[in-house]
Design a protein that fits this description.
The complex is a heterodimer of chains A (388) and B (252). Chain A folds into two domains: 177 residues, no CATH class; 171 residues, no CATH class. The model of chain A has no long low-confidence stretch (mean pLDDT 86). The radius of gyration of chain A is 29 Å and the shape is elongated. Chain A contains 16 helices and 13 strands. With 388 residues, chain A is α+β, with helices and mostly antiparallel strands. The two termini of chain A are 29 Å apart. The longest helix of chain A has 39 residues. In chain A, the strands form two sheets. In chain A, strands 1, 3, 4, 5, 6, 7, 8, 9, 10, 12 and 13 form an eleven-stranded mixed beta sheet that branches. Chain B is an alpha/beta fold and 252 residues long. Helix content of chain B is 34%, strand content 26%. In chain B, the strands form two sheets. In chain B, strands 6-7-8-3-9-10 form a six-stranded mixed beta sheet. Chain B has a four-stranded antiparallel beta sheet with strand order 2-1-4-5, with helices on one face. In chain B, helix 4 packs across helix 5 and helix 5 runs parallel beside helix 6. Chain B is globular and about 50 Å long. In chain B, 49% of the residues are buried. Classes of the chains: A alpha+beta (388), B alpha/beta (252).
C-alpha cells in the first residue's frame, strides 16, 4: 500500500497514452459484456416457465414453412395436461415496405383461445371484447405502438406475400406481456380464412398452455409421438426453445460470438501489453535507481504489475459500468426489433459481469507480467548506464 | 589498528562482451576509514565507476573481497544486498535521477518507504532532510519545477534520508554550472564534517576532488596513486596532488 501513490502516478504519467489505452479496453469490455449477455440470454430458462406460464409450441417437423393440418389442434387440445391451446399462422407480408424498420411479426390467431393461452398478457388500451367483436380487429404490441405512433382505431394495411391477399386491420387493443415482449400484431384468423378459404384447413403452429412444468415437458414428447407416423410429423418444444430457434437461424451464433469475443480479448491483451512494455522501457533508468535505493525485485515486480492492473481495471471497470448503464436501452431496442422474443431474456447477469471483471484482471496481469519481470531482472548497472 | 570501514582486497572485475573478456579492475586493494571523504579520479575507462558500483553493492566482483562496515558484501545474495543498500548506502547520481512524477517530498521519501517507519515519522525525516539541503520550501515542487542544482540537492536529501553511513556519488557536479556545483560540494562537505558520513565520490572535476580528504587515482583498472591530505593543509595538499594527477594547472 505504501507504493500505491507511486503506482497511481505512474499510471497517469503519460495522460494521452493512458486515456487511449483505457478507451481501447473500455470498448471491447462493453462488447464482451454485450456478447456474454447475449449468450447467457440464449441459455436462460424459459421465462414463460419461470412465471408459471408453461407454454409449448408445436410445428411441422420439417420446417416452419410447412403448415400442420388444422385437425391436429383438436387432438392436441384433448391431451391430458393441456389447459388451453390456440392456433397461430404466420402471415408474413409487408407493412408499408419490405425494409427492416417496418418489420414485425404478424400472426393470424383465434382470439378466444389466444387469450386463454396468453392469459398473462395485459390489455393496456382497448379491450378483448372490442377485438372479439370486430373481425378485422387486431391487438398490437405496446412496443410497436411506441415505434409507429399507432393508436386505437388506426388502420394497418398488410400486403401478403405467402398469402396473396391484402388485409386492412383495425387496432382494437394494445397488449403487453410481463416480460416486456410486445412487438407483434395478432389478428383474427377468420378474416384471413374469408379472404383465402384454403387457409382454413391448415395452421402454422399450435400453442399450448400446460398445467405445469412436468406436464409441459411431457407434452413436448407426447405430441410428437402422437403424430410420429402421420403425414405431417411434428416438432414440439418450449416457448423459449422455439424463440431461440429464430436466433439460431443466424447460424451457429454461439460459436460465432465466442470466436469474436476470443479475438477481442486477445487484442486487448496486445494493446495493454504494448502500453506496459512502452512504459517499462521508458523507465529503465528509473527502475535501476529504485533498485539501487534498495527496492527488491519483488517490489519492482509488484509495482509494474499493479500499474498494469490499475490501468486494466480503470478500462475494464468503465466498460462494465457503461454496459450496466446501457443495458436497459439495449433491451428496449431489442424489444422493438424482430428479436423481441429473445429480448425478454436480455438482462444483467451477475456471472457475465463477473466474467468481464475476470477478463479485466487477466488483461492487467498478463499484460504486465513480461515488462514486470524484465524490469525486475535487468541489471542495475545496465539500467543506470542507459540514457533514455 | 582499527578495521577500515571499507576494505577491498584483490578486487577483479571483468566483463564478458560476446567472446571478448574485458577486465576493468585488476586486483585492486583499497581501505577507506569511517568518516573519510574520498575522490576517485582517473581517465574514462579507468574503472572508477565500476569500483563505486562494487562498493555500493549494485554490481558483483569477478573475484576478490569487499567488506563494508564489517560485512562481506561480495558474497551476499541479491535480496540481502538490496536490503543492505536500503539501510547503508545513499546514492547521488550525475543526472540526479529523481522520479519525475513525484514531488521533492515524495522523492526523498522513496527510500524511507522501505523502512518500518510510520507515515508521521517518515514525514519528519523527509522534512529534516530537505531543510538540511535548504529546500524546505520546495517540498511540493516536481523535478521539472526545480533547477539542476536544486534537483541535485533533492537527490542528496534522498541519499541521506535513511541516515546511511556511506554516500556514494558518481560525478555529482558533472551536470551543473560552477555556482550550483559549489553549493553541492559545500553540502557534501557538510554531510561529511557535521554528520560523519563516509563519502566515496567519482569525479573528473579537480575542484570537486579538492574537497575530498583523499584522492585515489585509477588508471586501467589499477590504483595508481593514493594521496591523503595532511591535516590543516588539506586543500593545498589535495589541490596540488590533483593538479599533478590530472597533469593540469590549478585553476585560479
Amino acid at each position: 500500500m505504501k507504493f500505491l501513490p507511486l503506482v497511481l502516478k505512474n499510471v497517469f504519467r503519460k495522460k494521452t497514452r493512458t486515456a487511449l489505452t483505457v478507451v481501447s479496453i473500455v470498448l471491447p469490455l462493453l462488447v464482451i459484456n454485450l456478447m456474454g449477455t447475449f449468450l447467457r440470454a440464449l441459455d436462460r430458462p424459459d421465462p414463460g416457465a419461470t412465471r408459471g406460464m408453461f407454454r409449448t409450441v408445436t410445428r411441422h417437423k420439417v420446417s416452419l414453412g410447412n403448415p400442420l393440418p388444422v385437425a391436429y389442434f383438436e387432438k392436441i387440445r384433448q391431451l391430458p395436461g393441456v389447459v388451453a391451446a390456440t392456433k397461430f399462422t404466420w402471415f408474413g407480408g409487408k407493412y408499408v415496405d419490405q425494409s427492416a424498420k417496418n418489420f414485425f411479426p404478424r400472426f393470424a390467431v383465434e382470439p378466444e383461445t389466444f387469450l386463454q393461452v396468453f392469459d398473462d398478457a395485459k390489455i393496456l388500451a382497448g379491450s378483448t371484447e372490442e377485438w372479439l367483436a370486430d373481425r378485422t380487429g387486431a391487438v398490437v404490441g405496446e412496443n410497436l405502438v411506441k415505434k409507429f405512433g399507432w393508436k386505437l382505431g388506426d388502420k394497418i394495411v398488410l400486403v401478403g406475400d405467402i398469402f396473396p391477399v391484402t388485409l386492412e386491420l383495425t387496432i382494437r387493443g394494445i397488449y403487453q406481456l410481463p416480460d416486456g415482449n410486445a412487438s407483434s400484431v395478432f389478428f383474427n384468423r377468420k378474416y384471413l380464412e374469408e379472404a383465402l378459404p384454403s387457409v382454413a384447413g391448415q395452421v402454422g403452429t399450435v400453442w399450448v398452455k400446460a398445467a405445469d412444468g412436468p406436464a409441459a415437458e411431457r407434452l413436448t414428447r407426447e405430441i410428437d409421438t402422437l403424430f410420429e407416423n402421420a403425414s405431417a410429423p411434428t416438432k414440439t418444444e418450449s416457448e423459449k426453445a422455439f424463440q431461440m430457434g429464430f436466433v439460431q437461424m443466424l447460424g451457429n451464433v454461439k460459436l460465432l460470438i465466442n470466436g469474436i469475443a476470443t479475438i477481442i480479448v486477445f487484442v486487448i491483451f496486445l494493446i495493454a501489453a504494448n502500453t506496459m512494455s512502452m512504459a517499462a522501457r521508458e523507465r529503465v533508468t528509473e527502475v535501476a535507481v529504485l533498485r539501487a535505493l534498495g527496492f527488491g525485485k519483488p517490489a519492482i515486480l509488484g509495482m509494474v504489475l499493479a500499474e498494469s492492473l490499475v490501468l486494466a481495471l480503470i478500462g475494464g471497470g468503465l466498460g462494465i459500468l457503461l454496459f450496466v448503464l446501457a443495458e436497459p436501452a439495449l433491451k428496449a431496442g431489442l424489444m422493438a426489433s424482430p428479436m423481441s422474443g429473445f429480448a425478454a431474456s436480455f438482462d444483467l447477469f451477475p456471472e457475465v459481469l463477473a466474467m468481464g471483471l475476470f477478463i479485466t484482471i487477466s488483461v492487467g496481469v498478463v499484460a504486465g507480467v513480461v515488462p514486470a519481470v524484465q524490469s525486475a531482472r535487468r541489471s542495475i548497472v545496465d539500467g543506470l548506464r542507459r540514457v533514455v | 589498528m582499527a578495521e577500515p570501514f571499507i576494505r577491498i582486497e584483490s578486487l577483479v572485475k571483468a566483463y564478458q562482451r560476446d567472446t571478448q573478456s574485458l577486465t576493468v579492475l585488476t586486483g585492486l586493494n583499497l581501505a577507506v576509514d569511517e568518516g573519510e571523504f574520498i575522490a576517485l579520479m582517473g581517465p574514462s575507462g579507468s574503472g572508477k565507476t565500476t569500483l563505486l558500483n562494487l562498493i555500493a553493492g549494485i554490481d558483483r566482483p569477478t573475484s576478490g573481497r569487499i567488506v563494508v562496515g564489517g560485512l562481506e558484501i561480495h558474497g551476499m545474495g541479491e535480496a540481502a544486498l538490496a536490503k543492505w543498500r536500503s539501510r547503508n548506502i545513499g546514492f547521488i547520481f550525475q543526472l540526479y535521477n529523481l522520479v519525475p512524477v513525484l514531488t521533492a517530498f515524495e522523492n526523498v521519501e522513496l527510500p524511507l518507504l522501505l523502512t518500518d517507519l510510520s507515515r508521521a515519522r517518515r514525514r519528519k525525516q523527509v522534512e529534516l532532510a530537505l531543510s538540511i539541503v535548504g529546500l524546505a520550501d520546495r517540498m511540493d515542487h516536481y523535478p521539472r519545477q526545480l533547477s539542476g542544482g536544486q534537483e541535485q540537492r533533492v537527490a542528496i536529501a534522498r541519499a541521506f534520508a535513511t541516515d546511511p553511513k556511506l554516500l556514494v556519488a558518481d560525478e555529482p557536479t558533472g551536470d551543473l554550472d560552477s555556482k550550483s556545483a559549489e553549493e553541492i560540494l559545500v553540502l557534501l562537505e557538510r554531510l561529511n564534517n557535521e554528520f560523519g558520513k563516509t563519502i566515496v565520490m567519482v569525479t573528473h572535476d579537480p575542484r570537486a576532488a579538492a574537497r575530498a580528504h583523499r584522492l585515489v587515482h585509477l588508471d586501467k583498472g589499477v590504483l595508481k596513486e593514493d594521496i591523503r591530505a595532511s591535516a590543516g593543509q588539506k586543500e593545498v595538499g589535495m589541490a596540488a596532488a590533483i593538479a599533478a594527477a590530472a597533469g593540469t594547472e590549478l585553476p585560479g
